[in-house]
Amino acid sequence: MVDRYRYWLHDAIVADLDTRRHPLHVVIENLQHDFNIGSVVRTANAFNVAEVHVVGRRRWNRRGAMVTDRYLHVRHHPDVADLTAWAAAEGVPLVGIENGPGSVPIETATLPRTVALVLGQEGPGLSPDLLAACGATLSISQFGSTRSINVGAAAAIAMHAWVREHMEGTA
């Protein structure tokens, strides 16, 4: 599968991926020009998500994406209100990934098949406005001394949790 697209043209690759995209969206807040956005985008490509949504600043460091953003649909939302309007119009629930009070462990949660997993900035996490827009908040269980894990790692864990629930046994 890794070399499937080796000699394909870009537009043909995107068209083929579009026939198999999952109803999984990933949202990342970009308030501080976080370089981890590229890592989240690269992982989103690996899971063939429907779209990546960047909320806040339009510009982000694409180096970490390693050109994978060219094969995804990346949508910019200038603010939380624009994201929530899109989610309401499309019927896509927003589920925050945040290790704060009231969060339910992702290991015991049920994720909707169609969903937008919402991630905050490295360090501060989800902004209060974006946290309030989420219908549920899930945490990733941690057992060491660090306050949180890298947002790129958190995104990968959350996307994989969705895959385990909705794609198990499929190629």
Care to describe what's here?
- This protein is 30% helix and 21% strand.
- With 171 residues, it is α/β, with parallel strands linked by helices.
- It has a single domain, classed as SPOUT methyltransferase, trefoil knot domain (Alpha/beta knot), CATH 3.40.1280.
- The protein has a seven-stranded parallel beta sheet.
- Helix 2 packs parallel to helix 5.
- The longest helix has 16 residues.
- It is globular, with a radius of gyration of 15 Å.
- The N and C termini lie close together (10 Å).
- The mean pLDDT is 90.
- Keywords: Methyltransferase, Transferase.
Strand content: 15-25%
**Name of the level-1 CATH class:** Alpha Beta
The quaternary state of the protein chains shown equals: single chain
Q: At the fourth CATH level, what is the homologous superfamily?
A: SPOUT methyltransferase, trefoil knot domain
Radius of gyration: 15 Å
How does the major sheet shape up? Answer: 7 strands, parallel
Computed structural class: alpha/beta
Lateral strand order in the biggest sheet: 3-2-1-6-4-7-5
Distance between the termini: 10 Å
SS element count, helices: 5
Strand elements, count: 7
The averaged pLDDT comes out at 90
Write down the secondary-structure element order.
Answer: HEHEEHEEEHEH
Q: What's the number of structural domains?
A: 1
Specify the CATH architecture. Answer: 3-Layer(aba) Sandwich
Q: What overall geometry do the principal axes of the alpha carbons give?
A: globular
CATH topology: Alpha/beta knot
Low-confidence stretches: none
- Helix content, binned percent: 25-40%
Pfam family, one: SpoU_methylase
Domain tRNA/rRNA methyltransferase SpoU type: 24-160
GO biological process, one term: methylation
Protein name: rRNA methyltransferase
